[in-house]
Specification:
Blueprint lengths: L1 E3 L1 H4 L11 E4 L2 E4 L10 E2 L2 E2 L2 E2 L1 H6 L12 E5 L2
Parallel strand pairs: 1-7, 2-6
Antiparallel strand pairs: 2-3, 3-7, 4-5
Protein name: Cytochrome b5 heme-binding domain-containing protein
Organism: Furfurilactobacillus rossiae DSM 15814
InterPro entries: Cyt_B5-like_heme/steroid-bd, Cyt_B5-like_heme/steroid_sf
Amino acid sequence: MQNFTVDELKQFDGKDGHKAYVAVDGTVYDLTNVEAWRGGNHHGLTAGRDLTEMIKKSPHGKKTLTDKPVVGQLVS
């Protein structure tokens, strides 16, 4: 698994052929093949960021991430 800084994670925004990664609670998930995240956007959220607070406040919370590929950890 790879360690990502916040700046490195920004490269994975799901746009222009980039993969769509998001961090939640320090874990980085690959959402590239999730239809709802096509183009790196989902209900006003953008890939390539730490979305911990937004995901925790969402109706589904973290449970939709349980079957998504983990690609690394967010480090400071």
